[in-house]
Design goal:
22% of the residues lie in helices and 32% in strands. It is α+β, with helices and mostly antiparallel strands and 190 residues long.
Length: 190
């Protein structure tokens, strides 16, 4: 996988400031120096996405997405914010509903473990944690996120997470013991 870069967290990566040669193999040519502004590279867009998610601004998060998005989070009818989100407006709604439904918590392990970028593809791995506001239950789950960036905008968002743990935290008490899920616990505040 030539050109693959892995860093422990996005914050550890230095911003790219070099010529267009950073984005392709070979030296920059005179044609690369055209007076146009190139689209941000994949790493820069993903790092900005992570920063905006961390800041909790759904509208600014959504501004990084194309008008049409290949969105995938495994269907989970127990989790109110998980459903198809094919447009930029839907992306903003997702992050608003997520913020309204979950109080962020410190995860077990590092929140961000790796960012791997190759061309227009990026994969982010880490750990999620939160307290579902409606039930007071906490969840802890590892995740992997695949993003595709084209012309400076996210066109693919595929999230792989422990949906059983998240669903159990969203379920009322009589439904919260999903088989095989030890990743949920009642909050001390409950």
């Amino acid at each position: 996988m030539t050109g693959t870069q892995t860093v422990p967290t996005p914050a550890a990566a230095a911003p790219k400031t070099g010529p267009v040669a950073d984005q392709k193999s070979g030296p920059a040519t005179p044609a690369d120096s055209v007076a146009t502004t190139p689209a941000p590279d994949t790493r820069a867009v993903v790092e900005e996405f992570l920063s905006r998610v961390g800041a909790g601004d759904p509208e600014r998060v959504a501004a990084l997405f194309a008008e049409q998005v290949d969105w995938m989070i495994a269907e989970n009818p127990t989790v109110p914010w998980v459903r198809p989100r094919p447009t930029r407006a839907d992306v903003a709604a997702h992050f608003r509903e997520l913020a309204a439904g979950v109080e962020p918590m410190a995860p077990r392990g590092r929140p961000l473990e790796a960012l791997v970028v190759e061309g227009d593809e990026a994969v982010v791995t880490g750990n999620l944690a939160g307290r579902v506001r409606a039930t007071g239950k906490e969840f802890f789950a590892p995740f992997a996120l695949r993003l595709t960036v084209e012309q400076g905008l996210v066109v693919r968002y595929h999230l792989y997470e422990d949906g059983v743990a998240v669903a159990a935290a969203c379920a009322p008490d009589d439904e919260d013991r999903a088989p095989g899920s030890a990743s949920v616990r009642p909050s001390a505040a409950s």
